[in-house]
Write a structure and sequence with these properties.
Structural class: alpha/beta
Radius of gyration: 20 Å
Order of helices and strands: EHEHEHEHEHEEEEEHEEEEEH
Largest sheet: 5 strands, parallel
Number of helices: 7
Protein name: DNA-binding response regulator
Distance between the termini: 22 Å
CATH architecture of the largest domain: 3-Layer(aba) Sandwich
Strand content: 25-35%
Organism: Seonamhaeicola marinus
Pfam family, one: LytTR
Keywords: DNA-binding
GO molecular function: DNA binding; phosphorelay response regulator activity
CATH superfamily of the largest domain: Response regulator
CATH topology of the largest domain: Rossmann fold
CATH class of the largest domain: Alpha Beta
Shape: elongated
Strand order of the largest sheet: 2-1-3-4-5
Oligomer: single chain
Number of domains: 2
Number of strands: 15
């Protein structure tokens, strides 16, 4: 799973183009959208995204390449920058600063898709796995294929992205401590994979998933965990 961050001075057309392509790739998750470098810095250092799209034509007082150098001082070497510009004027600076790519506006879906797939090829995802043990039976599941977990008395049902359900003879609480951080407890009976969530409805207290009809309820007791997901989902829906 990869995360990305967009820095653009309210250029909705660019944001729409980027999110349109990336929404079709389930292994990419939006970590946020910023409209100026200074406020974006705090969010970027907090979320540590793998990919940062930055409009270098912004009239921000901070130079975009100085900004990128400062970010790299605090994050690991895995974070890549992709410049977005209406001209080729600063191509050399982007290469010198170590940017992964340079996209020209108006961007096309094809150009964005090529760039993202090159990044993905350079850094293939590593699937983490979880073991479901029952007596002498060991079953392994890829965590990036799990939609949500549902408690059923003292057992747990794993609902998978392909529609299948896998049963485990352990409690939901057992898995809460060993699953990756993108799995959030939202109900006494449910843990969800936030990477698959497409909508949060506070009116009926339910979460919806991409390409999956069943909705998962959440309760006010776990509202803080639900709110935690809003930064990425709201960023996608706002553009």
């Amino acid at each position: 799973m990869f995360s990305y961050f967009i820095i653009d001075n309210k250029n909705l057309k660019v944001n729409n183009s980027l999110t349109k392509v990336l929404e079709d790739l389930p292994e990419f998750k939006c970590a946020g959208i910023g409209h100026d470098y200074l406020s974006s810095m705090n969010d970027i250092l907090k979320e540590s995204p793998d990919l940062i799209f930055i409009n270098i034509d912004s009239e921000d007082s901070i130079d975009p390449f100085d900004f990128a150098k400062e970010v790299n001082e605090y994050l690991n070497d895995n974070t890549e920058f992709i410049a977005i510009s209406a001209t080729k004027d600063r191509t050399y600076e982007s290469i010198k600063t170590g940017f992964f790519d340079y996209l020209l506006m108006p961007t096309t879906d094809l150009d964005i898709r090529k760039t993202v797939l090159r990044f993905k090829k350079k850094r293939p995802t590593k699937s983490s796995r979880i073991c479901l043990k029952s007596y002498k039976d060991y079953r392994y599941l890829n965590t990036d294929e799990i939609l949500f977990l549902r408690a059923d008395n003292n057992t747990t049902d794993f609902h998978m992205a392909d529609g299948s359900v896998v049963n485990s003879f352990k409690t939901l609480k057992t898995y809460q401590t060993i699953l990756p951080k993108n799995f959030l407890r939202v109900h006494k009976s449910y843990i969800i994979n936030s990477n698959f969530v497409s909508r949060i409805n506070y009116g009926n207290l339910k979460c919806s998933f991409k390409k999956y009809s069943q909705k998962v309820p959440f309760t006010k007791f776990y509202k803080k965990n639900v709110d935690h997901m809003l930064n990425s989902i709201a960023a996608l829906q706002a553009v």
